[in-house]
From TrEMBL:
Residues 200-241 form the B box-type domain. This is TRI46 protein. Keywords: Coiled coil, Cytoplasm, Cytoskeleton, Metal-binding, Repeat, Zinc, Zinc-finger. It is found in: Cytoplasm, Cytoskeleton. The keyword Zinc applies. The lineage of its organism: Eukaryota, Metazoa, Chordata, Craniata, Vertebrata. The gene is Trim46_0. Residues 13-49 form the RING-type domain.
Length: 282
């Protein structure tokens, strides 16, 4: 158990604190998720490629790259040259508004050093396919060894197939139907994958089906992690949901306090205006 926990620590991204997804190998030998790397560069003012696409790095060879990427046309040299000269290039790591290509510095979250990625930014990094396969195998091992059992079956218990966030329990198919009878309020509960740790159901991003974690002040809307790294929110003011909630709550509390304290004065002014209206009519 201890050795498995130690191994799991080695497979966790230092940015998102979750298991690596499409890890990129940095020059300092540390690794970081592709989406996380894009997000870090975006926070430092660099315009990155779409983080949801596969990295087109030297490691993403034709055999490992998706067919969708394999069919993508390469821009003509003259068009690419015009884009770079105009300052609107969007290749990975290019700093927004820069007229000439420049080297991209990436702050490694593991060793706290600024790593030089060159002019191509993330495009110069290799995708760590070995680490990716290790993570996938570890996930499969955990799923096999940690089967979740139904919490309502009489012995012998069956393996759970559904979870319910509202009930905070895991069920087999039959028990789920039994405890969520048709025509009752519980029938509206949405089944989720079985788990032993139920978190409160948060608001979901309608576009990416991910839980919203931040608030864009510019757009005045909640955003998820994938929304944050899209070009739509480049240079926008984005804060964590909790910070935005506390700030808005404080602002509303002050506004309500001011309104309540001024209530008597306003009522007096209304009464005086009504008297003036009557007097004017007479």
């Amino acid at each position: 158990q201890t050795s498995m926990k130690n191994m799991e620590r080695e497979l966790v991204c230092p940015v998102c604190k979750e298991m690596y997804k499409q890890p990129l190998a940095l020059p300092c030998t540390h690794n970081v998720c592709h989406v996380c790397a894009s997000e870090v560069l975006l926070q430092h003012g660099h315009l990155c490629c779409d983080p949801t696409s596969e990295p087109t790095s030297p490691a993403a060879t034709p055999s490992t790259r998706s067919p969708r990427l394999g069919r993508r046309g390469v821009p003509k040299p003259d068009r690419l040259d015009r884009l770079l000269k105009s300052g609107f290039g969007t290749y990975p790591g290019r700093k927004r508004g820069a007229v000439h290509p420049q080297t991209v510095s990436f702050p490694c979250p593991a060793c706290q050093r600024d790593v030089d990625l060159g002019e191509r930014g993330l495009g110069s990094l290799f995708r760590n396919l070995t680490l990716e396969r290790v993570v996938e195998r570890y996930r499969q091992t955990i799923n096999i060894s940690a089967a979740i059992m139904c919490q309502f079956c009489k012995p012998p218990q069956l393996e759970a197939t559904k979870g319910c966030t509202e009930c905070k329990s895991s069920f087999c198919n039959e028990c789920f139907k039994l405890y969520h009878p048709w025509g009752t309020q519980k029938a509206q509960h949405e089944p989720t994958p079985p788990t032993l740790t139920f978190r409160p159901k948060g608001l979901m991003c309608p576009e990416h089906k991910e839980e919203v974690t931040h608030y864009c002040k510019t757009c005045q809307r909640l955003v998820c992690q994938l929304c944050r790294v899209r070009r739509t929110h480049t240079s926008h003011k984005i804060t964590p949901v909790l910070s935005a909630y506390q700030a808005l709550r404080e602002k509303l509390t002050k506004s309500l306090a001011y309104i309540l304290s001024s209530q008597d004065t306003v009522q007096t002014q209304i009464a005086e205006l009504e008297e003036t209206v009557k007097h004017t009519e007479v």
